[in-house]
Hints:
The complex is a heterodimer. Chain A is of the alpha+beta class. In chain A, 46% of the residues lie in helices and 21% in strands. Chain A contains 14 helices and 19 strands. Chain B has one domain (16-141): 3-Layer(aba) Sandwich (Rossmann fold). Chain B is elongated and about 70 Å long. By secondary structure, chain B is of the alpha/beta class. The A-B interface holds A 361-362, 365-369, 371-377, 379-380, 382-383, 386-389, 391, 401, 404, 407-408, 452-453 and B 4, 7-9, 11, 30, 32-33, 36-37, 39-40, 43, 74-76, 79, 99-104, 121-124, 126.
Amino acid sequence: MSTTSDQGGKAHGGSKSRASGAAGNGLQRTETYYRHLLKTTLLRLLLMYFVPLLLLAGFFHLQQLKLMRESRRAHLQSIAEHQAYMLDLFLRERIVNLENVIDDPRLPVPPSNEVMERRLAELRKTSDTFVDIGWFSTSGNLLAYAGPHPDLESRNYGMEAWFLELRGSAEQVVITDIYMGFREQPHFTIAVNRIIDGRYVVLRAVLSPERMREYLTTLQHNEQIVTSLLSKDGSVQVVAGRQDPGPVHSAIVPPRDPWIGTGELRENGSRTAYAYAWLRATPWALLVEGEDVVVPTALLGGAYSALMALIGAILVIEFLVIIYRARVVVRKQRRTDAQSAELSGQLVHAAKLATVGELAAGIAHEINNPLAIIAEETGLVRDLMDPRFGRSLSPAQLNEHLDIIHQATFRCRDITRKLLGFVRQESVNLGEHDVRQILDNVVDGLLGREFELSGIRVVKDYSPHVPEITTDRHLLEQVFLNLVKNAYDAMDGTGTLTLHVSATPACLSISVSDTGSGIPPELLEKIFMPFYTTKEVGKGTGLGLSVSFGIIKSLQGNIYVDSKPGVGSMFTVELPVVWKSSARTSDAGVWQMQGKAVVTEGGQS
Amino acid sequence: MSTQNDFPGDPVREETWSGTPIRLLIIDDETSFLNAIAQRLQMRGFDVTTASNGNTAIEIARKHKFDLALLDLKMPGMSGKQVLEVLKQEHKFIEVVILTGHGSLDSAVECTKLGAFGYLPKPYELENLLDTLKDAFTARMRKKFEYDHDRMEEILSLATGESALGILRRLKEMDTPEK
């Protein structure tokens, strides 16, 4: 570092401050930005519209499913109850049939096989489920038989479970589970006992469960349900509504209490609803299994698909509307951006004009000097030609005076050109420029006379190796003018203005330091705010630094301030050596500016 | 002279005011301006000396006597105001007229406070300048006269122990024949 900077560093060690751009987004909004905006807006709108819709739909779906399930179970239960009732009725009828036989006083005891045949025929007329009937003695010997298995005669049934059960039962009737028994065919037995003439007799009928299955099947409505008859231990007696015989033992063993109920079975991810009802005549349970939910058939037809089509159409329309809305939002954003870019352009220009206004006192008055020369020279020429003075004027002498007038005229032109050239509103115009030249232009050109006439020493500490960078000459000139003018004003006629330019491979650093009054720390954070000024009313607009900040941001740089009251201030501008062309700032002068700067105190430069 | 009145900037011979030409110091950093105005005022009978900066002007003023000075305000080095202060301080009777391109009411008031006689913004009409110079010279002469008068009175009173008025009375008494 050079000595000047060291001095600067010491001088400004008091309080350091850094202007950090809010969002640092001084750049023009690119096409990518708008695409991204469109995407996010679309996503947000979709989420906003569809999520509640889907949640609501899901909620109602679940509610409806629950209702349908409940009604399905109620339905299954009513079927179970009804069928159990019918089966009960059926069994009671069969018992009554048998009781009628055994209680018939005309029946000889024990009856002969012929009598039994006749009785069986009568019973079959009542119900064709009867397979055979038999008459047993106390000890369980088959005394008479009618049916398709006469070979069973003379067997002893004394130790058969049903026989023993009947003997121990007070009911005088027993109904067995379905079993294979001696005949290799599923069957079940209804037996009734009586004491006739002091002798214990039993009348037994074998009934075909096949008939019962048919009976259950006929009771079924056109529904996809499986009806099964279970014994009290859960073994399946009869199944209807299923092709395969299924398991011997039911997966569902209904409880005895309550005697009627519903439930659901989850198996391999599928749900089955069931309902059961216990019979009264015998501990058999009727189990009805069916699909968990059955969509009402009315909805499965045209109405349902119409509804689906309607919902689909609504979704599509909503989607289209959302896309349209998103596009509108992005278009509006674009327009706003364009407007704000235009506004900030106008702000920059306004700030420029204000600066010119402040400069006018110094620069425009400067025109008076060459004007005075012109006036004096013309007067002199006139005097020289005035016979009263008795002088003479040779063409060569006249030429000399005219030359002086000519020069003075062009001095005037230069001054107006300087001002106008600065004021001219131009769109962002990138070019390769040497910042040292731009700085010289301000210090020696625009403000040259001011410094010449004041007691301020200007020290230029330029590094010899400063690459040309891509930047906008006029915008940068405006920034430098603001900084140098502020330094000039801060010094009040005496002091040293140090201009320091150095370069690293990545960025250029330009600092303007003064030995002026400095900025109190409490004001440091305000100086980049628009319209903040410490100057008298009418002397400053408070736009200079805020606009400078915006400009430097738009030129992809940074601006820092570092000041100590009574010692001086140093403003440092950092600009990138390589222009990031992704932000197409050159396009139509569209560039975005953050008018507000955040200045944080503390040594974090 | 009346025959040549159609000429603008009617030349005024300083001999018409006083016997000797008015000694005038012009201070301005613009050399072409300095040369032109010096020449024109010389042609009008002024005894003109020029200086292109404040320091030179002060040096010259110490060596030579000047009746009037024309002073520019904005100059490199010493400013016009500083020069004005020094001149007024070092020279009792000099009258200074300010000529400036950066004219403003504030600076005019300030210069008047510092003792400037006149304040002319550039560019000006030569006639105005001549009028101002004439007034300035009159003022200077009056000041000089008053000063000389006061001095004389002082000297006389020192010599006679009486005021100049007393001496006049005594002279009159002397002229009057004794009764």
